[in-house]
Amino acid sequence: MREEIRKAFSPVHASDDTLEEVLKMIDAKKDAAVGRRRIGRIVLVAALLTVMLTFTAFAADYAVNHREVFFFDTIEALMKKQSEEIPEEYALSCGVPGSAEENADLETPAEYVDRVMEDGLFDQETVISYEEDPDAAQGWERRRVAECQSSYYGDLIVESLASSVYADRVFVEGLIDWDITSLSPKLTPDEGGQVLTLFRSAADGSLIRAQAHMGYTTDDGKRFSLTYEYNVKADYGEEPEYILNSAYDQSEVFVTKDGAECLILGYDGQVWANAAYGHKRVDIYTTGCTAEEVKTILEDLEPMQVFR
Amino acid sequence: MPTREQFIQLAQLHMDTIFRLAFNCLKSKTDADDVTQTVLLRLYETEKRFENEEHLKYWLIRVTLNECKKYWRSPWRRTEDFEDYANSLTVEGPKHSELFDAVMALDQKYRVVIFLYYYEGYTMKEIASLLKLPQGTVGTRLKRAKERLKKILLEEASK
Q: How far apart are the C-alpha atoms of B159 and B151, rounded to whole Å?
C-alpha cells in the first residue's frame, strides 16, 4: 500500500515558480518600509495583470461604518481600483466564494471549539492549564489558559472559555455585554459550539484581542455561526472591501433600523454578513437562511455592539 | 536564519513535501501553493535551531498543518476545478490514478492520516504528536480511512 500511495502522489509537486515567488517576497520584505503582510498567489476569474484601460464604472462606493466597500461589475475594474490603492509590492486580491458543496467540509462549530481547546488559535502556544467543570460558578464548561509569544502582539496570555452561555449572551467586562437571545427560537445552539477567547498582554494584563464564536443550527438542520471580534491592533474601518458582483448571487449593503450597516453577500445557498467599526467586527455565516432572513435576524439583534 | 543559499537548498528539498501535505489538507492546488510559500517564508525567517533533518521536517509539517487550519476557518474559498488539476497529473498507471482519486475523495481528516502514514512513513505515535491527537484517535482514523478507501476502490472496480 505504501508504495502504491507513493506512486499515486509522486506527480503532485509545488508549482515551478514557488521558490522564485518566495525569494521575491524575501527581497520585497527587505526593501519594504511598511509592516509585514502575508502575500499569496491569487487566481482571478479573468485575465491577470494585463488590465484593460477601459472599464465599467463600478456600481457604488459605500462607506460602511467608515469602511469603504467598492462593488465592481468586472474583474478588470476591480483590479484597476485596487492597483490605484495598493502599493506595488503587494499582490492584488479578489475574494471568490466557494460553493456550498466545497464548504460542506468546513469544521462544525463544535469541532472548532474542540480545536481551540486542544491547539489554541496561535502557533507556539504553551498550555498553562486546562480544566473541565460543567458546573463551574464562573459559567464556563471548559477553560484553557496558555502563554504565547507573538511577534505581532507581544507576549500574551490566552484564555479560552467554552460555554453554552455564550449562545445567549456575550460578556467581557469593560468591553461588551451583548444580549443575543433574539436568535432563539429561530436557531438552536450547537452543543459545545460556543467559545470566547481573550488575549491579554502578559506584561500588564490589558486586553489586546477578544473573539467570540457561537454556533447554531437552523430548523432544517443547516448551520449558522456568529462571530464577534475585538482587536486593539486592527482598525477595520481602514480595511476596504472589493466586491466582484458577478461572483455572488447577491451583494449589497443593508442598513438596520438602528443604523448598523452590514455587508451582505450570498452565493449558492450561503449567506455572509459582516459589520465593522473601529476595532470591532461582527460576522455571520449561514447555509440555512436566505439573505432576507438574515436581514430580519440583524434587525432583531440588539443594536450591534460595533456601534458602542 | 539560514543564508540565502542554505535556504534555497532546504526549500528545494522540502517544498514538495509541504505542497503535497497542504494539497491533501485543502484539496486545492492554488491554496496549497499559497501555504507552501507561507511555510517556506517561515522557514527563512525562523530563528529556531534544528537538531537534524528529521527535526526540521517535523517542524515544517507542523507549520504546514497550522497554516492549513487558517483556510478551514474561513468560508472564503477560491473556486477552482479540482478535476482539472487531477487530470493534468501524469500518474504511473490507471491503478494509481484511481488510488489518487480515492484518497482525495476521503474526508480531510482521513486524507491527512493516510498521507502522513503511507507517503511520509510516520508511525502512529509520530502522527499523533504532529496532529496533537490521542494515538487511539489516529489509529481509528487510519483504520476507517483504509476501510473507506477499500469501499471506494471496490465501487470503482464494479463500474
A: 13
The partner residue sitting opposite A8, judged by closest CB among B8, B79, B103, is B103
Q: Where are the beta strands (DSSP E) in A163-293?
A: 169-172, 176-179, 188-201, 207-217, 223-231, 241-244, 250-255, 261-267, 270-277, 280-286
Give contacts of A103 with chain B, Cβ < 8 Å: 75, 77
User: B107 and B147 in contact (C-beta within 8 Å)?
Assistant: no
What pLDDT score does B132 carry?
Answer: 79
pLDDT at A137: 60
Cell, residue A116:
481551540
Give the domain extent around A193. Answer: 107-215
Task: Tell which B residues from 59 to 78 touch A, by Cβ distance under 8 Å.
Answer: 63, 66, 69, 72-73, 75-78
Question: Could you say which of A184, A215, A246 is where a domain stops?
Answer: A215
Contact assignment for B76 to A12 by CB distance below 8 Å? no
Kindly state whether residues A240 and A198 are assigned to the same domain.
no
CA dihedral B59, B64, B70, B74 (to 10 degrees): -170
Chain A positions in Cβ-Cβ contact with residue B18 (cut-off 8 Å): 14
pLDDT < 70 regions, chain A: 30-66, 83-96, 102, 105, 123-124, 134-138, 151, 237-238, 303-308
pLDDT of A102: 66
Is A121 part of a structural domain of the chain?
Answer: yes
In chain B, CATH 1.10.10.10 sits at 92-159
Report ipTM (2 d.p.): 0.84
A49 within a domain of the structure (yes/no) = no
Point out the residue among A6, A25, A106 whose CB comes nearest to the CB of B41.
Answer: A25
The tens digit of pLDDT for each residue in B44-93 reads: 888 778 888 888 999 999 889 888 876 654 444 444 556 777 777 877 77
Give yes or no: residues A179 and A242 share one domain: no
Assess if residue A23 is contained within a domain.
no
Q: Which of A215, A245, A278 is a domain's end point?
A: A215
CATH 2.60.120 fits B1-88, yes or no: no
Chain A residue with Cα closest to B150: A1
